[in-house]
Task: inverse folding
């Protein structure tokens, strides 16, 4: 049976823009300006402080982004209590640093941290047309989700966006033990395919370093999701074919024949 692997963040649901919007909304609640410079300063501090966090590479946190780390679940994560506690402290410390950088009152950091969590949760939604397109693709394909991050967090986002039921299998880096870009992720998919006698038709995602690398590692065709004007047509990749599309809605799936390239493990 033909199978399509699809990315989650910025392919099915908005991620980066939702993070920026949530940062702007949070800045507004603590009386800070929401101009581009202040938002970029906040994002820089978010990245910098997460990179230096002592548990940055602990278990399922290994492939979590800095802005994701500010609204991870606090229950059923599989992480030790002290790690969860350190994450809660991290949220407040990040917002304290942002407030301090703009000479605002760091004592409002806890309010900002909870505000960001709330704003970001409200912005979990499928991108326009996603559900209809998944329903269409599902008529003739098995759909698998492949994403980096904490399993509990990614699955919660998928469910809240109303997309979980479209997928036959959900593969998250925190469960696989490797990022999508690592050959081990493609190898894990290969084992699942062999067990169920399936083959990959297409890999769909927005990241050249993660989704296109996954496709390259597996020897699979790819559709690179990139809004108009931001696509790099010169992406170096060794998959059979890379097409560039503006969104999932523009996927025209023509699966290769059974003679297509086999998985390279």
Result:
């Amino acid at each position: 049976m033909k199978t399509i692997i699809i990315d989650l963040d910025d392919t099915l649901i908005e991620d980066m823009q939702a993070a920026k919007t949530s940062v702007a909304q949070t800045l507004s609640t603590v009386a800070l300006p929401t101009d581009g410079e202040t938002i970029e300063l906040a994002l820089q501090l978010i990245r910098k402080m997460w990179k230096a966090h002592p548990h940055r590479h602990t278990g399922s946190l290994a492939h979590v982004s800095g802005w994701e780390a500010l609204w991870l679940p606090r229950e059923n994560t599989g992480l030790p209590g002290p790690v969860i506690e350190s994450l809660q402290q991290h949220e407040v410390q990040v917002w304290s640093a942002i407030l301090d950088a703009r000479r605002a009152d760091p004592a409002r950091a806890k309010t900002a941290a909870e505000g960001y969590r709330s704003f970001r949760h409200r912005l979990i939604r499928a991108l326009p047309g996603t559900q209809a397109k998944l329903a269409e693709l599902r008529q003739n394909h098995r759909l698998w989700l492949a994403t980096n991050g904490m399993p509990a967090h990614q699955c919660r986002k998928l469910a809240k966006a109303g997309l979980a039921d479209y997928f036959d299998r959900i593969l998250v880096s925190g469960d696989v033990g490797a990022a999508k870009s690592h050959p081990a992720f493609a190898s894990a998919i290969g084992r699942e395919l062999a067990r169920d006698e399936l083959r990959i038709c297409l890999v769909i995602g927005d990241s050249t370093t993660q989704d296109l690398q996954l496709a390259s590692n597996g020897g699979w065709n790819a559709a690179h999701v990139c809004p108009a004007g931001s696509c790099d047509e010169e992406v170096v990749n060794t998959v059979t074919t890379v097409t560039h599309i503006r969104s999932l809605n523009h996927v025209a799936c023509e699966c290769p024949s059974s003679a297509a390239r086999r998985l390279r493990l």
